[in-house]
Amino acid sequence: MTLLGFIVLLIIAALAGSLGQALAGYSSRGWLISILVGFIGAYIGLWIARQFGLPELLTFNIQGESFPVLWSIIGSAVFTALLGLIFRGRR
Questions:
Q1: DSSP letters spanning 28-88
Q2: In Å, how far are 48, 70, 71, 80 from 54, measured between CA atoms?
Q3: Where do the domains of the chain lie?
Q4: pLDDT tens string 63-86
Q5: pLDDT digits (tens, 9 = 90+) for 45-61
């Protein structure tokens, strides 16, 4: 994967993570966190999809690497909601 492909993948993950955080109503601020939440959300979302036998929808292929945008947004929302429950309880 080239540097440009990697940057495009990071931007898509950041957008998916930001949308997931917006849906969950809890934001941990920062673009690095949004990228991390986007990638973690992709893994969680794909796991959820496979558990229920759902297809991969809205998948972007970037230089041979596929990124499931829809499942990343859903997984990011689930992950962010869990983080919100954990960290809001401590305040």
A1: --SHHHHHHHHHHHHHHHHHHHHHTT----SEEEETTEEEEHHHHHHHHHHHHHHHHHHHH
A2: 8, 12, 10, 22
A3: 3-90
A4: 888 888 999 999 999 999 998 888
A5: 999 999 999 998 888 88
